[in-house]
């Protein structure tokens, strides 16, 4: 498989296996490695800032309070980003505590950045490196159960994210990802030109997921064990690209590569780059 036909390499949360997830160090290192796409997650603060974070709270696994104290699993939901202004969010550290599932991750001080900061920094850094502009996969962390508790309702959430994408002028290089079909349905109506990806992690047939969505998205993003030759063939017949996640082991990478996805999302882009 040549580099030309090799799937796009999506650095999951930057490169979670190597640097603290969803932080500037992770995105910068992913760019140095040579990823094609930076994958990241966004939530909303109390003052309506778009914050790069997988959870809408401070995870006990990787974050510390502004006083440097660990956060316990029982209290992490009390550190709700939707109830904190960004100036306070910025005071927490989410880089010094190594993620227990990623022993190769190099710890360093890091905060949860704003989406606008990540986009600005990544555009500038890619230019400094003399590499082509990177693409972005931005996951909107929305669910019906979280409405008005951990995030705004879909239309309001989406408007805040789209404003940042537009301001950074990266819309043509951005795909919007979401498990919440409501978000994608609103996006389809408001910005039909934007690339959209439906994320899936259950065993419900793809036909059913697409029927519920009501349109064919540009991309279908399934948890990689769900990807079969039959699913790959079905999606190709529909004209839908597929990007499985999160593929970290070499044997899994080789199995997925054989099905010729449009891209592969991984915590270890260095491993996938070595295969390319």
Give the SSE map:
Blueprint: E1 8-12, H1 24-33, E2 37-44, E3 50-52, H2 86-89, H3 115-129, E4 135-140, H4 154-168, E5 174-178, H5 181-190, E6 195-200, H6 206-213, E7 219-222, H7 229-238, E8 241-242, H8 250-257, E9 263-266, H9 269-275
Parallel strand pairs: 1-2, 1-9, 2-4, 4-5, 5-6, 6-7, 7-8
Antiparallel strand pairs: 2-3
GO molecular function, one term: phosphoric diester hydrolase activity
Organism: Hymenobacter fodinae
InterPro entries: GP_PDE_dom, PLC-like_Pdiesterase_TIM-brl
Overview of the structural elements:
InterPro entries: GP_PDE_dom (IPR030395), PLC-like_Pdiesterase_TIM-brl (IPR017946). One of its GO terms (molecular function) is phosphoric diester hydrolase activity. It comes from Hymenobacter fodinae. Pfam families: GDPD. This is Glycerophosphodiester phosphodiesterase. This protein has 9 helices and 9 strands. By secondary structure, the protein is of the alpha/beta class. The chain has a single domain, classed as Alpha-Beta Barrel (TIM Barrel), CATH 3.20.20. Strands 1, 2, 3, 4, 5, 6, 7, 8 and 9 form a 9-stranded mixed beta sheet that branches. α1 (about 25-35) packs parallel to α3 (about 115-130), α3 (about 115-130) runs parallel beside α4 and α4 (about 155-170) packs across α5. It is globular. The model has no long low-confidence stretch (mean pLDDT about 95).
């Amino acid at each position: 498989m040549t580099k030309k036909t090799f799937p796009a390499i999506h650095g999951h949360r930057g490169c979670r296996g190597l640097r603290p997830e969803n932080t500037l160090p992770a995105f910068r290192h992913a760019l140095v490695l040579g990823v094609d796409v930076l994958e990241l997650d966004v939530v909303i603060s109390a003052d309506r800032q778009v914050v790069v974070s997988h959870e809408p709270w401070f995870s006990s696994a990787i974050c510390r309070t502004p006083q440097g104290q660990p956060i316990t699993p029982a209290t992490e939901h009390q550190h709700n980003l939707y109830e904190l202004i960004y100036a306070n969010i910025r005071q927490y550290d989410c880089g010094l505590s190594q993620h227990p599932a990623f022993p190769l991750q190099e710890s360093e001080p890091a905060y949860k950045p704003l989406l606008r900061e990540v986009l600005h920094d990544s555009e500038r850094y890619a230019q400094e490196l003399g590499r082509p502009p990177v693409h972005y996969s931005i996951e909107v962390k929305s669910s019906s159960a979280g409405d008005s508790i951990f995030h705004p309702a879909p239309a309001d959430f989406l408007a805040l994210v789209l404003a940042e994408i537009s301001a950074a002028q990266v819309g043509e290089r951005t795909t919007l990802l979401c498990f919440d079909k409501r978000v994608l349905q609103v996006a389809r109506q408001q910005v039909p030109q934007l690339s959209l990806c439906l994320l899936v992690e259950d065993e419900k047939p793809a036909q059913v997921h697409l029927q519920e969505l009501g349109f064919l998205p540009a991309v279908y993003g399934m948890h990689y064990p769900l990807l079969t030759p039959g699913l790959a063939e079905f999606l190709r017949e529909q004209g839908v690209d597929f990007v499985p996640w999160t593929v970290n082991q070499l044997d899994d990478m080789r199995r997925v590569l054989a099905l010729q996805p449009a891209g592969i999302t991984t915590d270890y882009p260095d491993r996938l780059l070595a295969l390319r």
